[in-house]
Amino acid sequence: MNPYPPEDEPIRLGADNLPPAPEPRIRFYRSNANDPFFGLLIALAVSVGMTGLLPDQADLRYTVVMAVLAGIAVTSWLLGSFDHITQETPENLAWGVGFALLFSVPFVLFFFDTLSRATRLVFPQTSSGALLAYLIFVIPLAETLFFRGIIQRSLEFWATGIVAGVWSAVLFFPVMWGDIVRAPAVAFFLLIALLAINLLYSYVRERNGLAAAWLCQIVVGLVIFFLPSL
Questions:
Q1: What is the mean pLDDT of the chain?
Q2: 70 part of a folded domain
């Protein structure tokens, strides 16, 4: 046996003969901001758990639940796993408003009385000022940042719309549960409307960006819920 290695084989000495070091294992926790569905479960649990306050303190329930959604979105932003709102073009913002009006104006024209009744059921004993605050600031802020900013990074726009529509039903239907039992047609109409508008928001997010979807939700809320309440 030749004790010397062949001339074409490199001689490995010292650390060259050591096996490669294993790559460090990255541990993931289901409670971090990279798992938006865990945050959604938390928000759903809070929403269902606070149904005991209904109907007298529906506004308190809305505020707390939306604060949970917004808190999860802000935490995701702080940890760097959130799609930040960049400088938007006026064209994209105009598309957001245009889609909102194209969708909501026919609803108001043909279903004004139904929407007026649904608004009184969803926001019972709510003043016009408080309703404006929910429709302009509280609800669009929380839902846009959470669903269109976080959930839609993992799902297609139509799937995000369905998830957000189911969330809206879980949020609003307990407030008017007694009326749902007496008038299921109104509840069915509201469910279809909630699914449709959330699909619209997700589509605008996909097409024109997060700020356009945010503005779209504000305009739709004002036309569909605020105007019939006057």
A1: 84
A2: yes
Q: Does 57 or 13 have the greater pLDDT score?
A: 57
Cα–Cα dist 143/72, whole Å: 11
Tens of pLDDT, residues 10-33: 555 555 555 565 555 444 344 444
Answer whether residue 17 is part of any domain: no
In this structure, is residue 73 part of a structural domain?
yes
Q: What is the pTM of this model?
A: 0.80
Q: Is residue 9 part of a domain?
A: no
- pLDDT per residue over 181-199, tens digit each? 787 877 788 889 899 999 9
Q: Which two tokens stand for residue 73?
A: 């979105």
**pLDDT score of 84:** 60
Closest CA to 123 of 134, 112, 113: 134
